[in-house]
Structures are given as structure tokens and as C-alpha cells.
Specification:
The chain is an alpha/beta fold. It has helices at residues 2-16, 22-35, 47-50, 83-94, 130-136, 162-171, 214-217, and strands at 75-80, 97-101, 106-111, 114-120, 153-156, 190-196, 202-208. The two termini are 41 Å apart.
Length: 219
Amino acid sequence: MEHVIGQIAKLLHDFENGFMNRRQLVHSLAFAAVAAAPAGVALAQNPAQNSSAAPSAGAPAPAHSPAFKTVELDHISFQVKDYRVTRDFYADLMGMEVTNDNGRSQVEMKFGNSTLLARNRRPPADGATPAASAAAGAPVGNRPPATALVDHIAYRIYNWDTDQVKDELMRRGLAAATLRPDTGGGIPNYSSFHVSDPDGFNLQISGWAGANDSVSKKK
């Protein structure tokens, strides 16, 4: 319960300081309330308890409680060419805290309650070339072969100012003067930019734009 109270206090702080609008606050408070529900509601119900007959083919699945309730992002794992380059990039640009660097092949970096894990790429299995392994989607260890991809990861930052963020990205050589903010298709008070990190991952940096932000003034 103390954890939930802390989450609510942070949500109110973000709202009062302009980091989210009223609708986002209401939605976030609703999620916090669900997270505070007794653990028993998080267990998947047995359909047999609700119906004596199995649903017919094509019929919508019966409503039931989810097996789990996701509350936050645990970590993101990157396989990279040189973890040190990735470490320095995210620490310097995104302000992530280096918490566990083994000095050889991997590092853990904290942001909020989450972690970015960057580690040097594993060698391809059975002497295959990296290109061949990637093309075949070869599994690593007991992990399934890759059949899909994550097309980008977005990090939200506080004290957002669209023009200042763009200027900083340009200063670092990560963006051109022609780069336009991504507003998520017109989401109110939302602004972001996409750039490439040292390994070519699509990095989206986002924030909530205030009334005086250049994105808000253009609407």
C-alpha cells in the first residue's frame, strides 16, 4: 500500500508541475487503483467456473481477470557492438545512472525504476557468420528464434522544451535543422524527436509540452 501511495503522490506532483494533463492524470490514477487491488483478482479464473459449456468456435472469449498485472518496465536489453560506447551515449545524453559495469562486456544503467542493460553481442552459434545468424533468426541458447522486432523505444524526460531539445540534439550532431517534432499524430501537449543511437537503434525522446512550448503555439 505504501508503494501505491508513493505512486499517487508522484502522479500528483507530475500533474501540478505540468508533466501530464488532467486526462492522463485520471487514467494513471485508475491504473494505480487497479494495482492496489487484492492479489487474488490477478489470478486467471477458470472458465469452467463461469460456464458449463465451452464457447463455440469464433465466439468472443469470456471476460475474465488477467493472469498478471504489469506495473512497470523492468529492463530493456540491447546487444551492441561496443557496450562502452552505448554506456557513454545514454549516460551523457539521457542522464542514465551507471549502476553495474563489469568492465568487460556489459553495463546496467538505471532510469527511474527501470534498467537499460547493454552488452556486447554474443558470438554466433556453431561458427556461423553474424550476418547469416541474423538472417536466419537463429536462436541463442534456449531462446526462440527472432521472428519480429521492436521498431523503437521512447524515453520521457522532464522539463520538456521542444526547441531546447532540438538545439541540444543538433549540437551533438544527432539531428539536422530540418528535423520536425513527432507529436504522435496530434496527441495534445505531446512532443518528441527520433534519433539514432550509436548502434542504430531508433531512440525516441519525448515529453509533455507546456502551453508556451513551440509545438503548443502552432496548434
